[in-house]
Structures are given as C-alpha cells and as structure tokens.
Amino acid sequence: MRSETFLLHGAYDPDTFGGVVNPPVYRASTIVFRDMEDMETRAKAMSTPEGQELWYGRKGTPTTFALQEMLAGLEGGHRSLLVSSGLAACTSAIMAFARTGDHILICDSVYGPTRQFADTVLKRCGVTVTYYDPLIGPGIRELFRPNTTVVFLESPGSQSFEVQDVPGICAEARRRGAKVVMDNTWATPLFFKPFEHGVDVSVHAATKYIVGHSDATMGVITANRETWSTVREYVFAAGLHAGADDVYLAQRGLRTMAVRLERHFRQGVDVAMWLAGRPEVERVLHPALPEAPGHAFWARDYTGASGLFSVVLKPGFSREAFRTFIDSLKLFGLGFSWGGYESLVMPFDPRHERPGCHWPYDGFSFRLHIGLEAREDLIEDLEKALRFLHAR
Ligand SMILES: *Cc1c(COP(=O)(O)O)cnc(C)c1O
C-alpha cells in the first residue's frame, strides 16, 4: 500500500469499533481489570518490550495505539510513541541513549530549543556535545570519539535549510556503534523515509504537518527494532504522554496530510522561485532549488518538499524598512511554529543561536511557511510588502 492510501486505510480497521470510521477518543487514567488474573496477564505482557495493553491511561489507549501504529507504518519504523510536544520528542530521544560521560554529535543547524536542551540539561548531566557542520557528510568520521554514542540530525536544518547526506552520516555512525536520531519534521514521513536511509530513531514535531491545523502540539518518536526497547523504557520511565483529544486531532489531521503536502510543495516551490527572481533577494534557501545547500542530497533522497523555506535579502536595507516589510504582510502571520493550513513569516538571524556558524550573508533574513491560500494572493501580498523595503 502506498503512503497516500495507508493514511486512510492503514493500521486502523473501522470494524474494531462497530464500523466507526475514526478511532474514538478514549479519555482514561484508571483502567479497571476484571480480576487478579487479568491484571497479572496484562502485567506480564507489559513487562516485555512489545507489550501494548490497556494498562493505565498514561501508557496509551486505543486512540493512542491507532495513531502510533499509523505513524510507525507510514515512516517504516518498528513502533512509535506519542509525547506532548515536538521538543519533548527530540530531547527524549536523546535522553533515552545518553549517559554521563558520553559524547554526542548534533548538527549545527538543529532546532534552537533542542540545542538549548543540549547546552543546559545534557551538559549538567555530564554529556559533552560537538556541533557539526550539516554539510559534513561522511567527513563526520573525524569527529567521533571513543565515547560518542548518539548522532542527532535535523535535515534540512532549521532556518538555514542545509540538506544532509543522511545515508553517508548513518554509515559512519553504524561503523562506530553510535545511534542516529533524526528530526524529520520538515519532510514529514511522506517525503523522507528515515529508516530506509539508516536512521535508528526518527522524531517529529507532529505539531506541524501531522496535526496540520495549528491547534495542538504533539511529538512522535519512532524507533527501529534494535532501539525500540531503549526508547520505550525511557518514555515510560519519564512519564511522557499525549492527551486524548490532541491525539484525536493529530489522527484527523493526518488523514489529509498527503493532499495538503502536495499543495504546500507545489506552491512553496512556485513562491520560492518567484522570490529568487526578485531584485531585493540575495538567496532563497529552499531544498528543491538547485542553489540550495545540500540540494543534491534532497534530489537523491527526498520525494518532495514541504512549504517551509528561508529568504535572505540583499544587504543595504534599513532595519526599519525590513520591519515595515514584515509588518505589511497581510496573509503571512507573524508567529512561531508552522505546518498548519496558513502562511507564516518569521525573521531570524542564525548567528544569534549558532556561535561561530558559517553564515555568509549580511542582509536580513526571514523564514516563510507557504500555506494553502491561492499562490497568486501570496505573491501579491509579498510584492506589495517588498515595496516598503525601498521606502526612505
Ligand atoms: C517546531 C519544531 C520542533 C518542536 O515542536 P513543538 O511541538 O513546538 O515542541 C522540533 N523540531 C523542529 C524541526 C521543529 O520545527
């Protein structure tokens, strides 16, 4: 079954709930057992890595199980677990493997809050971190130490959108016995299949395209067979969980993800190309554009692009003009997150979060999320706002 069909018919059989098309919302803390024997049987199952029983609300309900199964299948991993946010998925996937004295490698283009976690909590736990150039590829072998246990990838990178040589990095990690965790949020499980490229654990901010409507936060951790029990042990031990109603929203959002992504992809590329032709623009950082960093890896390994990319302006515009440009956009909301149906803009400067990073631009930069609006309206909106850059 292809992914587009799997989204609709995979994992969940309506017959389970008397023909109800969508898995119902189970709100539960206590699950009562029929008797001691029933409790003991389920306890036995839960004590094995593959155990998935109705045991206690925090450990999942049929609502959770249905979405987890769907996501694991879609991504091609062994099993998935849901947590309350994308950030929790990132940090937990690292914590599942990191021990005091370990060294881990994280790409320099990682999502800012993931980096902050590494620089504070991981550091406090005695874990050292080296940030690597996202375009390093197999050259990452030089950075391994005897105690390197985890390589954390995010491809393409936050803000700067470098696409990484995922299989090249995974091969080196495997050789050194390190586990590879990848934040695959941008591509969604539709456009990049991490487990086919050597990743051990994939994480997503389901908050973005999976929920798809800017109305819930959620994270997904998907493990391969080899790492599953370690991930499960950590998630259960730490008490991580996603609420029933949010799980339902994610399940509902997921059904239309393929059609939404197709449009985000198409119009994202159209708007990116239009911007690349504008005299105010220095560079458009969109993985599908040939001049984007790591474009060759995107072309080799990805089957599509989502609607998120960055734009760098030519140097010389005043800060005030740039602010007026951002404020003049009518259809692009100024706000964090992305992946909903609507267009968004967010100014950034990667040098604020990435000390010493290679950022060869002097102009202002901003990130766009291209939503599902008509592209002509989005382009008109951008065109009008760009005029303010020239105002004195
Ligand atoms: C948004 C985002 C996250 C965090 O997700 P939240 O649900 O907001 O915590 C993690 N990684 C990437 C790449 C993101 O874009």
Automatic annotation (TrEMBL):
Keywords annotated in UniProt: Lyase, Pyridoxal phosphate
Pfam families in the cross-refs: Cys_Met_Meta_PP
Biological processes per GO annotation: L-cysteine catabolic process to pyruvate; transsulfuration
Signal sequence extent: none
Recorded metabolic or biological pathway in which this protein acts: Amino-acid biosynthesis; L-methionine biosynthesis via de novo pathway; L-homocysteine from L-cystathionine: step 1/1
UniProt KW Zinc keyword: no
InterPro entries for the chain: Cys/Met-Metab_PyrdxlP-dep_enz, Cys_b_lyase_bac, Cys_met_metab_PP, PyrdxlP-dep_Trfase, PyrdxlP-dep_Trfase_major, PyrdxlP-dep_Trfase_small
Chemical reaction(s) catalysed: L,L-cystathionine + H2O = L-homocysteine + pyruvate + NH4(+); an S-substituted L-cysteine + H2O = a thiol + pyruvate + NH4(+)
Enzyme class at the top of the EC tree: lyase
Cited PROSITE patterns: CYS_MET_METAB_PP
EC code: 4.4.1.8
Residues bearing PTM N6-(pyridoxal phosphate)lysine: 208
Matching NCBIfam families: cysta_beta_ly_B (TIGR01324)
Family: Belongs to the trans-sulfuration enzymes family.
Name this protein carries in UniProt: Cystathionine beta-lyase
